Amino acid sequence: MSRPDFNLLVTLDVLLAEGSVARAAQRLRLSPSAMSRTLARLREATGDPLLIRAGRGLVPTPRALELRERVRQLVQDGAAVLRPAETLNLKQLVRTFTLRSSEGFVENFGSALIARVDQEAPGVRLRFVQKPNKDSTPLRDGTVDLETGVVEKTTAPELRVQALFKDRLIGVVRKGHPLSKGKITLSRYAAGRHICVSREGFERGPIDEALGPLGLEREIVTIVGGFSTALGLARASDLIATVPERHTGNLRAGMHSFPLPVSMPEFTVSLLWHPRLDADLAHRWLRGHVLDICATIRARS
Fold first, then answer.
1. CATH number of the domain that 153 lies in?
2. pLDDT of the chain along its 301 residues, tens only?
3. Cα–Cα distance measured from residue 34 to residue 68, given in angstroms and rounded to the nearest whole number
4. What beta strand segments (E) does the chain contain?
């Protein structure tokens, strides 16, 4: 069976609206003969004469009258599909967005984002999921709409990336900890008892690599998978947590934070999404709020 020519729907819509081959041809900028040939094709496709001569004009058949509103709606719907979206009615938007990020990001920025979204689009729900690895598959297959993190060599090259903020590692201890008083020297820092944060469970990280050439080594007491867990342990003990400053602003409330005595490079936390969502108005709206909230909320020390 041959595939139907959907271009014929546009012509049929105009013919039924005008009731005249000549006027339909003029409206579609075709010659009368070309329009007559198209009408012949429409008659063959539908198995109905559609327009019958009555005196000097044409009148629609019962089949044509039956099709007229359906064809008009099909043409309008088709035009809407092929037209760029122009407006977004946030009050009527019903959608769930899945954001993959670290616990620290959610705890520091999540409440402000939820409040902003709820105020503007009460039908939108945010689903936060943990980020166990750097795999880009969830963004590619659509199970995740947005992701936050540091772009690395393993990040899928086709992903869109927008920088959110720069961050740096700092040390954090409980109030009253010996390191909360006096100058934090390399020897004092290294001599403390530390929490290592590693999703993969590694015993050494960038800080240990920076201390090694200086002849220093940290005592790693425990290894945890996230910064919020590290801060919870540090708050209730004499352990030292090393965490990103801006990522953990809210979580460090009531604790003592200090710059690391060893030089560590800043890193950029970015927003990532798949390019198929680039032009989606609702997705763009949500991205804009994530950017704005990250720019508004300052690191707390």
1. 3.40.190.10
2. 567 788 888 998 998 888 888 898 998 899 989 989 999 998 988 899 988 988 778 888 999 888 888 888 888 888 777 766 667 899 999 999 999 998 888 988 999 999 999 999 999 999 999 887 778 889 988 899 999 999 888 788 889 999 999 999 999 999 999 999 999 999 999 999 999 998 888 888 889 999 999 999 999 999 998 888 999 999 999 999 999 998 888 889 999 999 999 999 999 999 999 998 988 999 999 999 999 999 887 544 3
3. 21
4. 51-54, 57-60, 95-101, 124-130, 146-149, 160-167, 169-174, 193-197, 219-224, 240-244, 255-259, 267-273
pTM for the predicted model, two decimal places: 0.68
Same domain, 261 and 189: yes
Say whether both 149 and 280 belong to one domain. yes
Pair of tokens at residue 179: 């390191």
| Within-domain flag for 270 | no
> Closest by alpha carbon to 94, among 76, 56, 121, 54?
121
